[in-house]
Write a structure and sequence with these properties.
The chain is mainly beta. Helices cover about 10% and strands about 40% of the residues. The chain has one helix at about 25-40; strands spanning about 45-50, 55-60, 65-70, 85-90, 100, 110-115, 125-130, 140-150. The model is unreliable at about 1-25 and about 25-35 (pLDDT under 50).
Length: about 150
């Protein structure tokens, strides 16, 4: 014969909370504190140096270009998968295409990168890019490229 011992439970009830029951103030305060901490970080970025394709580099029409800049995440937010680098001004080198930022913790060095094909018409082309947070808000230094497409 199997006997089961029953003991009193002094912990929280596992019963579902009835609708209309108030959530304890401590739970609401804790959730608000976590939400506020996440929202209170600041996105920022500082340009350090060009890593590839110095300004006024001459390239052939249609040539592949891989432009990279060294930057520092000098904000208090970590950059994640939803942070983007978008073109904001200049000749349409990448025509509105946004690039994902490499994830970077606050205070860390990072590399921003755009790849594209040079325009087919000879001339000087200028592009300027800026980082955007997941809400679409721009932040940090802008980076740019001056590219000379030579004639063939």
């Amino acid at each position: 014969m199997l006997l089961l011992a029953m003991t009193a439970c002094t912990g929280p009830s596992l019963e579902p909370t009835p609708r209309g029951t108030a959530v304890p103030a401590t739970a609401t305060a804790a959730a608000t504190a976590v939400s506020t901490a996440m929202e209170s970080c600041v996105n920022d970025a500082a340009f350090v140096e060009d890593l590839t394709v110095p300004d006024s580099t001459v390239v052939a029409p249609g040539q592949s270009v891989d432009k990279q800049w060294a930057v520092t995440n000098n904000g208090t937010c970590d950059w994640g998968a939803d942070h983007r680098l978008r073109p904001i001004a200049g000749n349409p080198l990448v025509s509105g295409r946004a690039e994902a930022l490499y994830p970077a913790r606050a205070g860390a060095a990072a590399t921003w990168r755009v790849t594209f094909e040079a325009p087919t018409e000879p001339g000087e082309y200028i592009g300027e890019w800026q980082a955007f947070d997941p809400a679409g808000t721009p932040f940090g230094d802008t980076v740019f490229l001056v590219l000379e497409v030579g004639g063939e």
